[in-house]
Recover the amino acids of this structure.
């Protein structure tokens, strides 16, 4: 029978034999899969694993600093690369969801390629691919690798994509990845983290993206997510987040009329993200969260809760 401990033992031995004394590059996202893959490789090859964690400027509030710190505490050889300005400059004026994704994918590849050139004589690219990703990538829609290819079929692949690929989690389902991570001592807060899209807050800011909008949404999201944790609701929800709508509405503040932004909160239950139901969060929680957001986040005067299920609504709004 399959056990996490046995998986770790055979996988680490296999990675040692396969990689030997060669250097490996791995992109950490802050998510469960890449983190577990990194810890497995760290066990096998230690400092020859070079992890790269990129801040695209579209992460949650404090996420880059907090997660980078946590990775270092875990003993990983990780470099944090703050490329926020590069991403946000490239996104200026873009409001179409798919072109936002393409721009972010392209800039990520550029940043990652630059960084991987700084690792002398790397031979391998490690990825936290899990079994459902393998299935998805052969389906018609095409995952991130399809995006990468569409951008680089002219002028050739970036150098890091020519490396030998190692994917230690390729045969595992998500719950197995979590169990493997737990057996290696990864923190519950890392293992239990909600899914978060690669393009980050870019696809939760409807329309064009500015630094000011990112800052507003980070505050709103932080109040919502921290509230879910404080109320013991975080682990009952599969994914949650806030959307900044391209809508101003009228409000009152004291004797003054305001004309400010509206945010939508979304929390869903799901097992794989393919279908999802909105979560029946307690009214008291929604009431408190809405008050906190409107009182604490300048520029926001209205909060709505998304009660749409998938299908037909998607989880993200873009
Ligand atoms: P939707 O909005 O399609 O989302 O119902 C399903 C799941 O996928 C995530 N998502 C993405 N993840 N890049 C990603 O890495 C993307 O472009 C992207 N779009 C959606 C979403 O957060 C949810 O978990």
């Amino acid at each position: 029978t399959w056990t996490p401990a046995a998986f770790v033992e055979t996988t680490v031995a296999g990675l040692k034999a396969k990689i030997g004394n060669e250097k490996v590059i791995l992109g950490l996202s802050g998510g469960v899969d890449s983190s577990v893959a990194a810890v497995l490789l760290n066990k096998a090859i230690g400092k020859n694993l070079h992890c790269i964690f990129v801040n695209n400027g579209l992460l949650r509030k404090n996420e880059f600093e907090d997660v980078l710190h946590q990775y270092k505490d875990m003993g990983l050889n990780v470099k944090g690369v703050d490329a926020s300005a590069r991403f946000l400059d490239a996104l200026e004026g873009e409001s179409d969801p798919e072109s936002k994704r393409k721009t972010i994918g392209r800039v990520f590849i550029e940043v990652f390629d630059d960084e991987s050139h700084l690792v002398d004589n790397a031979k391998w690219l490690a990825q936290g691919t899990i079994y459902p990703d393998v299935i998805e990538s052969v389906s018609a829609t095409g995952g991130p690798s399809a995006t990468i290819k569409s951008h680089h079929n002219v002028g050739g692949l970036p150098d890091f994509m020519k490396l030998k690929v190692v994917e230690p989690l390729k045969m595992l389902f998500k719950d197995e990845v979590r169990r493997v991570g737990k057996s290696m001592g990864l923190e519950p807060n890392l293992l239990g983290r909600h899914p978060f899209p690669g393009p980050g807050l870019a696809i939760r800011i409807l329309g064009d993206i500015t630094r000011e909008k990112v800052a507003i949404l980070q505050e709103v999201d932080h109040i919502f997510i921290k509230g879910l944790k404080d109320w013991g609701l975080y682990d009952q929800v599969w994914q949650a987040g806030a959307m900044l709508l391209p809508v101003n509405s009228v409000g009152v503040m004291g004797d003054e009329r305001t004309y400010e932004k509206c945010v939508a909160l979304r929390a869903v239950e799901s097992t794989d993200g393919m279908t999802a139901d909105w979560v029946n969060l307690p009214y008291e929680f929604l009431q408190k969260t809405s008050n906190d957001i409107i009182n604490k986040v300048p520029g926001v005067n209205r909060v709505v809760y998304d009660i749409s299920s998938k299908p037909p609504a998607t989880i993200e709004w873009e």
In short: The radius of gyration is 21 Å.
